[in-house]
Amino acid sequence: MAYAEDARPTPFKRYCKALRLQADTELLAAYRHLHAPGNAWPEITQGMREVGILDMEIYLIDNQAFMLMDTVPEFDHDQAMQTLATKPRQAEWEALVAPFQQTTPDATAAEKWQLLERIYKLGA
């Protein structure tokens, strides 16, 4: 499946992350629904923008989630994740999605979503 993309006129950083979800058809359907267009809480998307996240996409295959996160060039991942955790309703959102994820109940978003290592890039 292909996805149309908008051109970005300015440089950005890209982070790729992975998260394992519960292998349960009903939970996966509910997780998809929470992330469907218009369903993420406005406070969550606003908090992401405030810490420097320009765009984010999540892809699923079976019970494995992959995230692409584009940020401002000066983005400090660890600092931004700490700041994001303090934003309005962030803890509530994390508690809501925790039952869908194969993590401990007290894991932070940064602990749940593991950064992936890029091992290949076409071109540059």
Automatic annotation (TrEMBL):
It comes from the Bacteria. Signal peptide: none annotated. Transmembrane segments: none annotated. It holds the Pfam family rhaM. This is L-rhamnose mutarotase. It comes from Hymenobacter bucti.
